[in-house]
């Protein structure tokens, strides 16, 4: 079972994360998401507000990578897995409440990544090293 470490959770909390999805033709789409957060030791979520290409890709195939790095320390992580789109449970309701409290656009869904692999995003010889994988 793959688990986030305290360092990984802190990295997600303190830095801007980027997500990557892929469409049916294999064309990737990458973009920043300020709402990325660790839900628990095995899942990462974010608030999908735009409903554009990332959302469409996740509806079609659920493939998601989340990358986060710190420019100063030149360290980071890449999280791989499949998503489940939450639209009517406590995870989604918490997101809606957060949006209302902070005067933000209501999310359409909360994609939740079940982590199946974690890589380093460190600069230098450890770049891209697989730290843990279900394979």
Describe it:
There is one protein chain. The protein has 135 residues and is of the alpha+beta class. 22% of the residues lie in helices and 39% in strands. It has three helices and eight strands; from the N terminus they run αββββαββαββ. The chain has helices spanning 6-14, 53-61, 90-101, and strands spanning 17-22, 28-33, 37-38, 43-45, 63-70, 75-86, 110-120, 130-133. Strands 1, 2, 3, 4, 5, 6, 7 and 8 form an eight-stranded antiparallel beta sheet that branches. The protein starts with 5 loop residues before the first helix and ends with a strand. The mean pLDDT is 95.
Describe the structure concisely for a colleague.
The chain is α+β, with helices and mostly antiparallel strands and 135 residues long.
Secondary-structure-based class equals alpha+beta
| DSSP E strands, number | 8
Provide the gyration radius in Å: 15 Å
Using the alpha-carbon principal axes, give the shape: globular
Distance N terminus to C terminus?
11 Å
Percent of residues in β-strands: 35-45%
Low-confidence stretches: none
Tally the helices: 3
Mean of the pLDDT scores? 95
Q: Tell me about the biggest sheet?
A: 8 strands, antiparallel
* Percent in helix: 10-25%
Encode the helix/strand succession as letters: HEEEEHEEHEE
Itemize the secondary structure elements and their pairings.
Elements: H1 6-14, E1 17-22, E2 28-33, E3 37-38, E4 43-45, H2 53-61, E5 63-70, E6 75-86, H3 90-101, E7 110-120, E8 130-133
Antiparallel strand pairs: 1-2, 1-5, 3-4, 4-7, 5-6, 6-7, 7-8
């Amino acid at each position: 079972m793959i688990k986030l470490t305290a360092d990984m959770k802190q990295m997600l909390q303190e830095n801007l994360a980027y997500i990557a999805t892929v469409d049916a033709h294999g064309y990737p789409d990458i973009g920043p998401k300020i709402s990325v957060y660790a839900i628990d030791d095995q899942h990462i979520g974010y608030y999908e507000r735009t409903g554009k290409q990332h959302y469409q890709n996740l509806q079609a195939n659920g493939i998601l990578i989340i990358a986060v790095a710190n420019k100063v320390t030149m360290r980071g992580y890449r999280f791989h897995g499949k998503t489940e789109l939450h639209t009517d449970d406590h995870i989604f309701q918490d997101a809606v409440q957060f949006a209302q409290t902070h005067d933000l656009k209501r999310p359409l869904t909360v994609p939740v990544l079940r982590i199946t692999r974690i890589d380093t995003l460190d600069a230098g010889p450890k770049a891209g090293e697989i730290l843990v994988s279900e394979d």
